[in-house]
Amino acid sequence: MRFKNLESYRIGGVGSDMQLGIPLPKTPDGRVYRYSPNENAHPRLFLLGDRVEGFALPETMSARMSHMPGTPGTICPYSGTLDEDDAFTHPDDVAAAQEVVAHAAAADVAEAFHGMFADLGRKFAGNKFVKIKPGPQPHPKPRPRFARRDLLRELVCDECGRDYGVFAISLFCPDCGAPNIHLHFAREAMLVREQVEMAGKLGAEQGELAYRLLGNAHEDVLTAFEATLKTVYLYKLTTRPADAPEVKPVGNAFQNIERGRKRFAEFGFDPFGSLSVDALAVLTLNIQKRHVIGHNLGIADAMFTEHAADARLGETVPLVGEDILQFADICKMTVDHIDAWLASGALPPSRDVPPVKPIIAPPAKEPATLRVGKLGKLAVRIALWVAERSEKGLGDFIAEEELTKAFPDSSMDELAFAVAELAKDGYLRTSAVISKRILRIRVAAELFITFDPHAIKTDPASDVVTLVDLALARSNTVGVEELHAATGWPLRRFNPAFAYMVSQIDGRRVLAGGTNDYPARGFFLMDEDRVDLKRFADRLRG
Predict the structure, then answer these.
(1) Of 202, 401, 428, 506, which shows the fewest CB atoms inside 10 Å?
(2) What is the overall mean pLDDT for the chain?
(3) Per CATH, is 181-342 categorized as 2.60.40?
């Protein structure tokens, strides 16, 4: 018996013991369903297409790849799980293949029975006693067809050229394993640009609609940014050892820069580490602005007016298309930095897109509005000036002449009193100098820890958590230069956090002196120090 229909799917086997290959149903754009074998890689479903025409594959894996593209094996884009290609077959495709085989087998059996009776009819054609008349040739039912739909987010890996589609934010290319979150956010930024352009084409009579479109675009930037950080953080949690301690639910931690930093500090990484001080200030203001737009109909509230110098309580917060695009650019810089972290430091391919406009920190409120303990206004101004002018964040010496030049409107007695206030509260160290009204001044680490968040928009109390995690991962001796290199931070940002950490270690184990760039050359860690540092960092994590 021949199985003509089944044999059309034969890819191997001998005789009637056939090995069949059933083509997978495809979407209108030619992609096939894939289903992650990792049960926790929600939503598991993704689509896999062909490599884009003309893309030149490298002969060896690039630094960002984890799997040679075009070779057996598939990678789950949501979890990074690598498995055999067959392990990713979608259950619906298995059922579809079974139905195709059943249809072909039924057609073959029907045809075989018809042929058998037709042969008998011919054999007994001249017999007077037995008449066999076969029925008409059977017409098989149409072959089963299966609809497959494309997904909303379609991507092309810029490392291997593979076309694929995903439901949610995915992390990796399913062919080469390269991190691809930068592609997701680039697409979000493109959609935001289109919204801004659409708003810009509306006339003055449609100003309210234009404002609504710009508001939606602004919210979309932060929504995509927050979702990206959350997705990467949750993925990193899955890479921890099985006995790792539980963490608090994420909630809206990534709607706030410092809380987001503390989350990623668990892995010794600062997602905002690549941003300049100005870029970080612009990002901070836009995150605060999103709250006003999304929850207060664009009306400035008291919290927002505390941070935005040009905002007035009760008035509508202005939205400018260029500002929204710059916000998206800064978020993309951060996402690219995170993407490189997933690729062990290898940056994603650059598209050389020029910035919308220069990144300049928004004007800040008058420093005198800041209140720190019982310090007077002049003392606060001096502390902010000291923090802003410091190049290394070390215990700089400040001469009387520098101070009087920086504050010409204050008398010598007023300056001396303000310096005494700062010294009294531990922000400065002073010593007597012959023939000088103002004592010799040296800056204490406490000044940077307290005033850096206001002066240069970095927070040593947050950064020190990252340093502690890095230090605890090292051996008994921690060298300052190695630790600094691991952070990738500018020296000005690193030193206050390092000094803060060193202050928690027994001074007998601190390697003091021998360097002009750091508070110390390093330190030794004993078990009791590790306990103290861990508890210190846990308190700051909140």
Answers:
(1) 401
(2) 85
(3) no
